[in-house]
């Protein structure tokens, strides 16, 4: 469960980027977060990852109290969250297997577990035959699938995808979204997709949280309103 209670965020004591946000996302929900550029979507994501601290209010994620969390506890929080970025963030000198394995290595997973889980998750995203390929040998959609496998290999409860289809063609976008839907529907993962793509949001008819002028403008089931 994710809960924001009266959350506000300012930078350098200037204008509020987010102000008095109240939000609850239940375990196993699929949620789109939308909003214009500069509306606060990126700040919301950084607060969820504890890359930024709240100015006011409190955030609770799966029992972690982020507004009072010590820095040493942050890695434990991030094990609960798998993050997928628009720009993939793959290591160019590591092959596909090594890119995904790295996520397990940094938390000290045993090599026996890595050897079992990495091929399993690469098969899950349809890249079992690409383990020895390097990022430059892959299409954009394949690179994003590697990034998705890396995000889920440690079995997080929450997956946050920041503009996951922004650099992909329509067919690849559908494939990535279908994978995220399957993770939600078949494995019960909480999935949060941050996007500006209205057609994508309208197609999947899930909960849509619209951020605007520092707060939540709308919270509804179904597509977003036309601009």
Explain what you see.
This protein has 227 residues and is of the alpha/beta class. The protein has 7 helices and 10 strands. It has helices at 41-48, 74-78, 96-105, 111-124, 140-152, 170-187, 198-204; strands at residues 2-10, 16-25, 30-34, 56-61, 64-65, 81-84, 158-162, 190-194, 207-212, 215-221. The strands form 2 sheets. It has a 6-stranded mixed β-sheet with strand order 6-7-8-3-9-10, sandwiched between helices. Strands 2-1-4-5 form a 4-stranded antiparallel β-sheet, covered by helices on one side. The longest helix is centred in the C-terminal third of the chain and has 18 residues, at 170-187.
In which range does the helix fraction lie?
A: 25-40%
CA distance, first residue to last residue? 31 Å
Number of strands: 10
Strand ordering within the main sheet = 6-7-8-3-9-10
Q: What is the overall number of helices?
A: 7
User: What integer value in Å does the Rg equal?
Assistant: 18 Å
> In terms of per-residue confidence, which ranges show pLDDT below 50 for 5 or more consecutive residues?
none
Shape: globular
- Class inferred from helices and paired strands: alpha/beta
The SSE string, one letter per element, is: EEEHEEHEHHHEHEHEE
How can the largest sheet be summarized?
A: 6 strands, mixed
The portion of residues forming beta strands comes to 25-35%
Mean pLDDT: 92
Summarize this, please?
The chain is an alpha/beta fold. It has helices spanning 41-48, 74-78, 96-105, 111-124, 140-152, 170-187, 198-204; strands at residues 2-10, 16-25, 30-34, 56-61, 64-65, 81-84, 158-162, 190-194, 207-212, 215-221.
């Amino acid at each position: 469960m994710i809960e924001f209670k009266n959350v506000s965020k300012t930078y350098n004591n200037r204008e509020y980027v987010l102000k008095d946000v109240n939000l609850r996302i239940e375990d196993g929900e699929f949620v789109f977060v939308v909003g214009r550029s500069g509306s606060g979507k990126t700040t919301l994501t950084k607060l969820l990852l504890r890359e930024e601290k709240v100015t006011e209010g409190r955030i609770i994620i799966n029992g972690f109290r982020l507004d009072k969390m010590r820095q040493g506890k942050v890695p434990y929080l991030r094990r609960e969250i798998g993050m997928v970025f628009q720009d993939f963030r793959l290591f160019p000198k590591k092959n596909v297997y090594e890119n995904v394995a790295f996520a397990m290595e940094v938390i000290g997973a045993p090599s026996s577990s890595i050897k079992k889980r990495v091929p399993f998750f690469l098969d899950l995203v349809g890249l079992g035959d690409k383990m020895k390929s390097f990022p430059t040998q892959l299409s954009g959609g394949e690179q994003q699938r590697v990034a998705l496998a890396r995000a889920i290999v440690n079995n997080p409860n929450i997956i946050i995808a920041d503009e996951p289809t922004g650099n992909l063609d329509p067919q690849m976008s559908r494939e990535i979204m279908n994978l995220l839907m399957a993770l939600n529907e078949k494995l019960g993962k909480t999935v949060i997709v941050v996007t500006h793509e209205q057609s994508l949001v309208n197609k999947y008819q899930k909960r849509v949280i619209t951020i605007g002028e520092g707060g939540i403008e709308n919270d509804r089931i179904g597509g977003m309103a036309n601009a």
